[in-house]
Amino acid sequence: MPESAWPSAFRRWITAARPWALPASTMPGVFGTSLAVVVGGARADVLRFALALLAMVILHSAANMLSDVFDYKRGLDRDVTPVSGAIARGWLPAGAVTRAAIILFVLGSGIGLGLAAVTGTALLIVGAAGVAVGAGYTLLKYHALGDLAVFLNFGLLGALGAWIVQTRAFSWLPVIWTVPMAMLVIAILHANNWRDAVSDAERRVRTFASLLGDKGAEAYYGFLLFGSMAIVLAFVVVPRLIGFGLPALPWTFGIVLLALPKAFGLWGRARRRRAPRQPMDFIILDGATAQYNLLFGSLCTAALWLWFFIR
Predict the structure, then answer these.
(1) Which site in 25, 168, 279, 284 is 20 to 30 Å from 15, CA atoms measured?
(2) pTM, rounded to two decimals
(3) What angle do CA 154, 156, 157 make, to 5 degrees?
(4) Which has the higher per-residue pLDDT, 172 or 68?
(5) Could you give the CA distance from residue 208 to residue 229 in angstroms, rounded to a whole number?
C-alpha cells in the first residue's frame, strides 16, 4: 500500500494527537513562565519549565485522542479533511487510541505530581482541575460547555500552572492577563464546531456553535478574534487612565497589532464560507485559527521580554 494511503506508525500516532491544536497548550505555558520571570521576579528554572510544558502537551494530546474516540463512536467527523485525526482516516482503531489516551493521561499526571511535590499544594490543585476538565472534555463539549472547558484548561489554568511552577505561589495576575489568549483557544474549537454544527445538531450534540446558529456563530467568532486584541489594548490603556487595582500591561503589548492583518484574513475566510476563495478555506479554519493563536501568543510573550530588556 502506498505511503500516502498507509503512512508510517510515527505519522499515524502524531496525527492521532492532532498536533495542529497543540499551540493552544504550549502558548499559555510559555506566557505564564515568562510572566513569572519578568513580572513575578522568579529565577527561571529551565528544567521545571520543560517538564511543565511536556506535561501540558501530553495531557492536551490525551484529551484530543479521547475526544476523537467519542466523536467517532457517535458518528461525528467521519468525513476526512486535512485536519482529521487518525481514527477518521482509518489509520488507527478507536480501541488503540483509547488505550494510548489513558497512558498519556497517566504519564502527564505523573509529571504533574512530580512538579507538585517540589512546588506545593497550589500546583496540585490546579493540575487536578486541569486533568479533570481534560478527561471530561468530550462530555462537556456535547452539552455546549466545551468552550468553557478549553478556556480554562488550555488558557487560564495553563498559564497559572506555569506561573506556580516558577514562583511556587498563587496569583491572579496570570489568570487575568491570559484571558485574550484563552479566548483564541475558544476560537479554535468554535471554528471546528461551527463547521460541524449541522451534523452535530442532527446527532443531538449540542455545541455552542449549534445553539447560536450560523449568523450567531459568525458574530461569536468575530468577537473572539477581535475581542482578544481589544482586551489586550484595554489592559494597556485603562489601568493607566482610571486604574482598577490591577497592574497595567506594559506598553510594549502594542505589538499585538502586528497580528491584525492575519485576524482580518481569518475573518474574511469566515465571512466567505459559502463562497470561499479556496475550497478548504472554511473547512480548515480551525487549523488556521490555531496558527493565529500561536502568532498572537508569541507576540504577547515577545512583548513581555521586550519590556524586560527595555526596563
Answers:
(1) 279
(2) 0.88
(3) 75
(4) 172
(5) 22
